[in-house]
Design a protein that fits this description.
heterodimer, A: about 200 residues, alpha/beta, B: about 160 residues, 4 helices, about 20% strand, elongated
Chain lengths: ~200, ~160
C-alpha cells in the first residue's frame, strides 16, 4: 500500500467562522447598566415609640388617586408643576431671622404658613392601591428632583460644584481629587437639605 | 549590470493575513466572557417606567425582585401581577424569607450586611402591591432599595 499523506486542511475560512461567532456575541451582549431611584426604608415598626408631633405647616402632602391624579396640599396639580411646588415648600424658611431654626440660605417666600426650614420640612406621599406604578415612580422622581435641585444649588454656592454630578462621579469611580474631603462636603450638603420623604399606607380606593 | 537589475516591477508584497484569525478570536473571547446570559429566566412582563433622577447600581451587593403581570414563561394560573425572586414565583407573604434566602446564598459574605434590594417593577403594576413588598422588606430589615427605571424624563 502506498503511503498516503494526510491532506492539508484549508484554514482560510477560519476567520469567517470566527467572525460569525463574533457577530453573534456582539449582538447578544447587553452590557447591563441598571439605574434607578435609591430609597431608604424606615426601620421596622416599633409600637413603643410615640410618633413625634409634626406641625401641619411642615408637612407637604401629596396624594395620588386610583386615576393617577395628584392632590397636593388639597389642590389638584399637574405632574409637571410638582417639582417647583416641592422646591417652594422646602425652600420656604418660615422662621423669622434671629430666632432658633432660622434658615439663612433659603431663598423662598418665607411665608409663616409654610415650612420652617428644610430640616423640619417633611414631604408625605400616599397613593391608592390601584395607582399605576408609572405614576408612582414619576411622583417619586419629581420629589427626588426637588431635593436634588436644592442640593445642587447649595453645593454650588458653598463649593462651586453640583452635588448630583460630583456624587455620580464618585459612585462611578471617576472622581479626580480628594475623595474623602469631598465626601465630607457631600455630607454637609445632605445635612443642610435632608431627604425627608415619608410614605403612608395606600388607601384601598 | 545584472546585479542591480530590479527583480520585477514595483509590485507591493501581499499583506500577510495569517494573524487575522487570531485577532478575531481575541475579540470573540472578549465578548464571550463579557456576555452574561440571563441567569434567571424572567417569568413576568418587565417594562420599566421612566425616571431621570437616577443613581447607578452596585451589582455586587444587589438582589433583584421582579414584579409584573405573568409573562410567556409563567406556567401558573394567576392573571394578576406576580412576584419573582431568583427563579421562583413567590407570594407577598413569602417575600421576606425568599429575599433573605437570596441574600445569604447569592451574595458574597462581605456584601451581605450592606445589601441593596433592586426592585424591577413593570410599569403597569399597582402601587398597592409595591407597598406590600416594601413593607415585607422593611420587616426583613433590608432598608436599602432601588427602583430600577429606564433613563428618560418622567414628565411628558
Amino acid at each position: 500500500m502506498a503511503k498516503r499523506s494526510a491532506p492539508e486542511i484549508n484554514a482560510g475560512s477560519m476567520a469567517d467562522i470566527a467572525f460569525l461567532l463574533l457577530i453573534f456575541f456582539l449582538v447578544t451582549t447587553t452590557i447591563d447598566k441598571d439605574k434607578g431611584l435609591v430609597r431608604q426604608l424606615p426601620p421596622p415598626l416599633d409600637e413603643e415609640v410615640v410618633p413625634p408631633i409634626i406641625k401641619e405647616k411642615n408637612l407637604f402632602i401629596v396624594l395620588v388617586n386610583a386615576n393617577n391624579d395628584l392632590l397636593v396640599e388639597n389642590e389638584p396639580m399637574e405632574l409637571k408643576d410638582l417639582r417647583q411646588a416641592a422646591i417652594d415648600f422646602l425652600d420656604n424658611g418660615g422662621i423669622p431671622s434671629g430666632q432658633e431654626g432660622y434658615c439663612d440660605f433659603c431663598q423662598g417666600s418665607r411665608s409663616p404658613s409654610s415650612s420652617d426650614n428644610p430640616d423640619k420640612a417633611i414631604i408625605s406621599m400616599s397613593s391608592a392601591r390601584k395607582t399605576n406604578y408609572t405614576t408612582y415612580i414619576a411622583v417619586q422622581n419629581e420629589l427626588g428632583a426637588a431635593y436634588n435641585e436644592l442640593r445642587d444649588r447649595e453645593s454650588e454656592r458653598l463649593y462651586g460644584w453640583k452635588y448630583t454630578e460630583v456624587k455620580a462621579a464618585i459612585d462611578a469611580g471617576t472622581y479626580t481629587g480628594n475623595e474623602v474631603k469631598t465626601k465630607e462636603k457631600l455630607k454637609e450638603v445632605k445635612t443642610l437639605i435632608p431627604f425627608k420623604l415619608s410614605e403612608a399606607e395606600p388607601k384601598s380606593n | 549590470m545584472s546585479k542591480f537589475k530590479k527583480k520585477k516591477g514595483g509590485e507591493l508584497p501581499p499583506v500577510n493575513t495569517a494573524s487575522l484569525p487570531d485577532i478575531v478570536f481575541m475579540l470573540l473571547f472578549f465578548f464571550m466572557v463579557a456576555t452574561v446570559l440571563r441567569k434567571n429566566d424572567l417569568k413576568v412582563l418587565n417594562q420599566l417606567p421612566p425616571a431621570d433622577q437616577v443613581e447607578k447600581l452596585d451589582k455586587q451587593r444587589t438582589v433583584f425582585v421582579y414584579i409584573g403581570k405573568p409573562g410567556p414563561g409563567y406556567k401558573g394560573k394567576s392573571k394578576e401581577a406576580i412576584i419573582q425572586i431568583g427563579d421562583r414565583i413567590v407570594d407577598v407573604s413569602e417575600v421576606k424569607s425568599a429575599v433573605l434566602q437570596e441574600v445569604s446564598t447569592k451574595l458574597n459574605e462581605g456584601y451581605q450586611s450592606s445589601s441593596i434590594i433592586a426592585l424591577k417593577i413593570d410599569e403597569n403594576a399597582e402601587a398597592g402591591l409595591v407597598y406590600d413588598v416594601k413593607q415585607e422588606l422593611r420587616e426583613a430589615n433590608l432598608p436599602k432599595i432601588i427602583f430600577i427605571t429606564t433613563p428618560s424624563s418622567a414628565v411628558e
